[in-house]
Amino acid sequence: MMLTPARRESANDGPTSWQQLPHGVWMQQQLSHVFAPYSAKIFGYYLARVGHLAKELELPELRVRHQFSAAQHGESNILAELEYWPFAENALDAVVMIGQLEFERDPHQVLREMSRSLIADGYLLIAGFNPFSPSVLTGCWPGNTKQPPWSGRYFSKARITDWLSLLNFEIIDAGYVAPTLLIARTARADFGLAGITRFIPQLNSMYYIVARKREFPLTVMRVKKRMKPQMNGLPIANRVK
Which of the listed residues 28, 49, 223, 239 has the most CB atoms within 10 Å of its CB? Predict the structure, then answer.
């Protein structure tokens, strides 16, 4: 099966808030719940929330002194293109990115920039929209095709995991969350998927990944070989027969 190239000509506008998505506040709560055990382990000085959804995500257990939001437009602490991340190497302790790669022009480059700015053993928390969820079909309805999240280009959890592995990230945890069809008219957010996703979690509307940046020694350590005794240099009486 051939995968479509991740890079495209231009970026699309992603969601500006959770309220813009059908049952968005409920989805936000679902993500906060799965990230809570790991956010309690993150500490340091600087954490970047990439994108508007990450900005609004509640992570009360974080022990980071300074948190700031970054996006290409809208109300954020820092306005910047993610492909040209304005942070020095090894400057951030953690990065949280929610529903953002789907709308970027070059998601490979965005992840490289996130990796460059993270310290060794820094955390990267990513969540995105699942291309294998039935909620994708809701985007085929007239009027939805150009609306987020369906206006983005979905990537599978496995594909994002492969990209992170190439950047020397260790995957701490990964899974699926938020069983919803993204239909605003349904009374319950998980209508039609609550029972099914217990047995087939791949049908959830979003995936999540918790990763840590690992650094390996660049100097090759060569093992010294044990030298064999030169038989010709020993006296005849000391030679082993």
Answer: 49
Two tokens at 114? 């996130």
Question: How far, in Å, are 6, 41, 128, 189 from residue 133 at the CA level?
Answer: 20, 30, 12, 14
Angle at 68 between CA 63 and CA 69, to 5 degrees: 130
Higher pLDDT: 235 or 201? It is 201
Backbone angles phi, psi at 135, to 5 degrees: -65, -20
Tokens of 74: 């809208």
Residues with Cβ within 8 Å of 227's Cβ and at least 6 positions away in sequence, in order, are: none
Cβ–Cβ < 8 Å for 49, 59: no
pLDDT in tens, 79-126: 999 999 999 999 999 999 999 999 999 999 999 999 999 999 999 999
Q: Which two tokens stand for residue 34?
A: 């799965």
How high is the pLDDT of residue 74? Answer: 87
Would you say 56 and 18 are in contact if contact means Cβ atoms under 8 Å apart? Answer: yes
For CA atoms 61, 91, 129, 145, give the dihedral sign: positive
Q: What angle do CA 216, 119, 5 make, to 5 degrees?
A: 80
Looking at the DSSP bridge assignments, the partners of residue 98 are: 127
State both tokens at 68: 């700031």
Segment 132-144 mean pLDDT:
91
Q: Given the DSSP bridges, would you call strands 43-50 and 92-98 parallel, antiparallel or unpaired?
A: parallel
Angle in degrees, CA 194, 190, 52, rounded to 5: 130
